[in-house]
Design a protein that fits this description.
Elements: E1 12-16, E2 22-27, H1 28-31, E3 36-41, H2 50-59, H3 61-65, E4 69-75, E5 101-104, H4 109-113, E6 117-118, E7 122-123, E8 125-130, E9 136-142, H5 150-161, E10 168-171, H6 174-186, E11 191-194, E12 208-209, E13 218-219, H7 220-233, E14 237-239, E15 243-248, E16 257-261, E17 265-268, E18 271-273, E19 277-279, H8 285-289, E20 295-296, H9 299-302, E21 310-314, H10 318-327, E22 333-337, H11 347-355, E23 359-362, E24 366-374, E25 377-385, E26 389-393, E27 396-399, E28 403-405, E29 436-438, H12 450-470
Parallel strand pairs: 3-4, 4-5, 10-11, 11-14, 18-29, 20-27, 21-22, 21-27, 22-23
Antiparallel strand pairs: 1-2, 1-5, 3-8, 6-7, 8-9, 12-13, 15-16, 16-17, 19-28, 24-25, 25-26
């Protein structure tokens, strides 16, 4: 049942308000009149992961409040069932002060009307974002054991409200975009970071990062989270959307560019392209057929599915070696297949690889075909070739042969080389189009390191600041 773009369904029921007052005639439309709201359903007050979600929403209530967003929880429990635990601290097993309204849906009518009633007994873990015109702008429904990411709904509210708050647009993965956002924010450019389809970029699927200055060793996702927090702290706005097209507004007297996403259009006077890169594939028909069924380009994402199994990794650079080492946490054997007689990976990574008894290296071999079954669909082996073909029995294949720039939507918008890398003026991030700048892996085919991407992100922000100043955008 889809309610997005439709009016929210009104109701009047008993509820416990944020101050603990119990009312019998809580009306949704009256409560959130001319306001945004997050309406979330949870199964029962003290089963599954509900208490943790009640606490998580309370912990984020300040973030919602400063955006003018009302938070309202709904369950099929009695309106009184959680009250005895409000005064009990979280560390003592309670839920602490609940800083928002909790609605009783004991008759299950609200859950039924919103299409989230499961087995006619309890509500699924659903969330609806309602705008100030009482229209549903977003909905998501999780299965009972799956908790929510509360920050996601804060970002969605920001994305919806962005129609009235245009700023500099950075359609980017976090790795490059955050560095640009930090410097742009410090220059009072009011930057927007549009996260793209892989929030956090390639580092979110990287395990140990040991070559980023200031960190002897840090997990990729943790580094990205610190960058996100830094960018937000200095004033950058992080938007959960994916840019689909970009155009220059020739006749506009207000903004130069429009970047169109899945959720909104974003208008700006400058754009920093920092959309990173994506994994390359071998190009085999059988590879595409079994993607998601044993063929993957992300060991961090899918490695746990191959516990006590045999897997192959294809490639010879840092990514391939890192993937192979990581997979030994789960697989009983890892076969690294490389088309040459030596690896391109850093020496320290090679040393770790060769010391690992679980890893076998096949030199001077290429993968010709991936074998599998249809029922159930799964990989059963691969055919590799050196001087002659041979079949290997494996349960999974991880492709790690490099990356290609994520620049498809900018084709024809800025000048690129034959490989899709954006061409920039030497020593700068300036592209062929005035007001458009490129940072990170979209323009770097040589170094392709996180610290280099962050550096060019800084350059792009400084170049954008200078451009806007010369263009007299600043007042």
């Amino acid at each position: 049942m889809n309610l997005v773009t439709k009016s929210a369904i009104d109701f009047t029921v008993p509820a416990v308000l944020s101050d603990g007052e119990i009312v019998n005639d809580f009306c949704l439309s009256e409560r959130i009149k001319n306001k945004y709201a997050v309406l979330f359903f949870y199964p029962l007050d003290f089963t599954f992961v509900c208490p943790t979600e009640l606490i998580s929403f309370s912990n984020k209530i300040e973030d919602f409040s400063k955006r003018g967003v009302e938070v309202i929880g709904v369950s099929v429990d009695s309106k009184f069932s959680h009250c005895k635990w409000r005064k009990t601290p979280v560390n003592d097993g309670g839920i602490g002060e609940v800083s928002y309204t909790l609605v009783s849906d004991i008759k299950k009518s609200i859950s039924r009307d919103y299409g989230v009633l499961y087995d006619d007994s309890i509500a699924l873990r659903a969330t609806f974002v309602i705008d100030d015109k009482f229209v549903v702008r977003h909905q998501s429904i999780n299965d009972l054991p799956l908790g929510r990411n509360i920050d996601e709904f804060i970002r969605i509210v920001d994305a919806i409200k962005h129609n009235e708050e245009h700023g500099e647009v950075c359609p980017a993965g976090w790795k490059k975009g955050y560095a640009a956002a930090i410097y742009a924010a410090r220059a009072n450019l009011e930057p927007i970071v549009v996260m793209g389809m892989q929030p956090g970029g390639q580092l979110t699927i990287t395990t140990d990062v040991e070559n980023y200055p200031g960190f002897v060793s840090i997990q990729g996702p943790e580094l990205m989270e610190q960058m996100r927090l830094h960018a937000e702290q200095v004033g950058a706005k992080i938007i959960d959307d994916e840019i689909k097209s970009v155009e220059q507004l020739e006749d506009s007297n207000k903004y130069r560019f429009r970047s169109s996403g899945n959720i909104n259009d974003y208008y700006s006077d400058a754009i920093i392209i920092a959309s990173g890169a994506q994994a390359k594939w071998l190009g085999l028909k059988s590879e595409k057929e079994f993607q998601g069924y044993g063929v993957s380009a992300c060991a961090t994402c899918d490695g746990a599915f191959f516990r006590n199994k045999v897997v192959a990794v294809v490639g010879g650079g840092n990514t391939a070696v890192e993937e192979a080492i990581f997979l030994t946490r789960f697989a009983k054997e890892v076969i690294l297949i490389h088309r040459r007689d030596k690896l391109r990976a850093e020496k320290v990574m090679q040393d770790r690889l060769f010391k690992n008894d679980k890893i076998k290296v096949m030199w001077n071999h290429t993968v010709e075909q991936i074998l599998g079954e249809e029922n159930p669909k799964k990989v059963t082996g691969i055919i590799v070739k050196s001087t002659e073909a041979q079949e290997l029995e494996v349960d999974g294949v991880f492709i790690a042969i490099g990356h290609a720039p994520n620049t498809g939507i900018f084709k024809g918008f800025v000048e690129m080389d034959q490989q899709g890398y954006i061409i920039t003026k030497p020593g700068t991030t300036l592209t062929s189009k005035a007001g458009v700048f490129a940072a990170g892996d979209v323009q770097d085919k040589v170094y392709r390191q996180a610290v280099v991407a962050a550096g060019t992100g800084c350059m792009a922000a400084l170049d954008a600041e200078k451009f806007l100043e010369v263009s007299k955008v600043f007042k």
